[in-house]
Design goal:
single chain; alpha/beta; SHC Adaptor Protein; 2 domains; 8 strands; globular; cytoplasm; HPF_long/plastid
């Protein structure tokens, strides 16, 4: 069962917007096994008063589905995100279910589709996730600013480093809007 947490930045989420989001996003619920509970987090933003940005995140146990779209029409952005999430699920469903079954003794992450609905997507090829190159490097202790400089000098869009203060493994990355992000790892 999907629960919704819908939030709007810089504008009010009207009942009509909420209803449209819930109606559209509930379509992906058919891909989950019976009894799956997930909270769908929806963030809506206006950008430059001409575009909207919509993000839909569905965190589940051991798996996160996420889609993001920018569009002049908020309703169209939601429709595009739902289509993107459905493509992600169909594309990776078999592989994810196999990994979960092997690794976690879980049944499946995604429900089996009916034969009629799976025929519609039979022509979609499952691409191979072959690793074609492996690199090894030493993680040097540094701060975030130095990591960003190193990343830019290498011409990469991400950089893995050891934080000099916490001694944790962190990642800096360049975002689509040109700003930078930091991912801090945590030990469980």
């Amino acid at each position: 069962m999907l629960q919704f947490n819908i939030r709007g930045d810089n504008f009010e989420v009207t009942p009509a917007i909420r209803e449209h989001i819930e109606k559209k996003v509930e379509k992906i619920e058919r891909y989950f096994p019976e009894g799956t509970n997930a909270t769908v987090m929806v963030n809506l933003k206006t950008i430059n008063n001409s575009q909207t940005k919509a993000e839909v995140t569905v965190p589940m146990k051991n798996l996160v589905l996420r889609g993001e779209e920018r569009h002049e029409d908020l309703y169209a952005a939601i429709d595009l995100i739902v289509a993107k999430l459905e493509r992600q699920i169909r594309k990776y469903k078999t592989r994810v279910n196999r990994k979960f079954r092997d690794r976690e003794s879980m049944s499946t992450a995604f429900a089996a589709e009916s034969p009629a609905s799976s025929q519609n997507y039979a022509d979609e090829e499952e691409e191979d996730l072959t690793i074609v190159r492996t690199k090894q490097f030493d993680l040097k202790p540094m701060d975030e600013e130095e990591a960003v400089l190193q990343m830019n000098m290498l011409g990469h869009n991400f950089f893995v480093f050891t934080d000099a203060e916490s001694n944790g493994t962190n990642i800096v990355y360049k975002r689509k809007d040109g700003t930078y992000g930091l991912i801090e790892t945590a030990q469980e």
